[in-house]
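Q: What would this chain look like folded?
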Amino acid sequence: METSTEVPVASAIWAVEQVAAELRETYLGVAAAMVLLERVGAGCPHPALRLARRSAGDALDLAGEVDQQVTDGVRRLRVAAGHIEPNTIGGLVEVLDSVGSQWSAAADRIRLLPARVTAAGRQLRDAVPADAPPADPGDSTEVTAGQKHNPDVTAGQKHNPDVTAGQKHSPEAATRQRQHDTRPTARQAHDTETAARQWQHAAEQLDLMAECLTSAVAALGSYTDGLSGAEPATR
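A: My prediction, written as structure tokens:
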């Protein structure tokens, strides 16, 4: 039978747990925004950006402290009400198993990402060949160079507007110009190769992240097996 204090206490616990849940969601949003800020502001020494990063970090630290205080208070009230036993092995194993399951699910999801990043890098390399020329090697540059050393031709063109107009509007000149506009330059090829290498490094880091999570899951499993008195499972 519930006492006169149990209902308001349970209501208070429920209310503060809702706050804690919203706080955790907000924490993730702030952390994600900090990652974005670090990416776009990397290497910028401006005091305002440093202050923004420091203040956001302080906010995350405070959020962790708030969550700890709320969780401890809720647990204390539940222990006092006899709803849970303090520091039970079974309760600890249950929490650790839940953490291990979340890490394992995250590792499974992350393992699918490197292949997608690698495929994007391959597509990037295929789009811009690494041996792209630095400039259009068309005949127009050779003609120009020849004109520089042939004053008679140059002078003749100056007095022959039909020749000049014909060169400007000839189909061959237009084709060469289109090829020059669409052909990747050496600079584009360099940027493409650099981006592809960075993406490959990111894919390798994702593989490493999945391995780290898998290792963490195995370590937790070994610990919980020891707590429960079971033989360590082979993983």
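Confidence is low (pLDDT under 50) at residues 135-149, 163-167, 231-235.
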